[in-house]
Amino acid sequence: MRSITRNSGANTFLVALSATISIPPIKPDIMTVAKGITSAYFPLGVVVFNDRVYQGVRGVITSGFTYDGHPVGCAVATKTMEIYVRDKIAEKVTKVSKHLIDRLNAEFLPLPCVGEVTGLGLMG
């Protein structure tokens, strides 16, 4: 995945539950996260990057625009992340996603117009 995204220029990876989910062997350099970071209660987008990228942009990327870091959005995101961890949402998604793929396979794979069923997390 990393070589494909680097060679194609794709540099974002959407994770429905933001940064709480780790999907080996995918280790993105940069992730963009929206909606899920606040459970869609407040419009907020986030860019997350690893240490290597951080070292490259350190001191270059600035913040301070009127639309950056809105206190309500950040408070909602912080609380949402606390709930994701407290309620073990990532672990629940892992369990439920297996059931989802099994059910989709059972229901749709026998149809002649369906060649395969794939999914990642709850994104079937």
Structure, explained:
With 124 residues, the chain is mainly alpha-helical. It folds into two domains: 2-87, no CATH class; 90-124, no CATH class. Helices cover 40% and strands 8% of the residues. It contains four helices and two strands. It has a two-stranded antiparallel ribbon. Residues 8-21 have low confidence and may be disordered. Pfam families: Aminotran_3. Keywords: Pyridoxal phosphate. GO terms for molecular function: pyridoxal phosphate binding; transaminase activity.
Given the C-alpha coordinates, what overall shape results?
elongated
Q: Name the helicity range.
A: 40-55%
Q: What's the arrangement of strands in the largest beta sheet?
A: 1-2
How is the biggest beta sheet arranged?
2 strands, antiparallel
Structural class: mainly alpha
Termini gap:
19 Å
SS strand fraction: 5-15%
Count of individual beta strands: 2
Residue-averaged pLDDT: 77
Q: Any idea how many domains?
A: 2
Q: How large is the radius of gyration? A: 18 Å
Give the topology string: H per helix, E per strand: HEEHHH
Question: What's the number of helices?
Answer: 4
Uncertain parts: 8-21
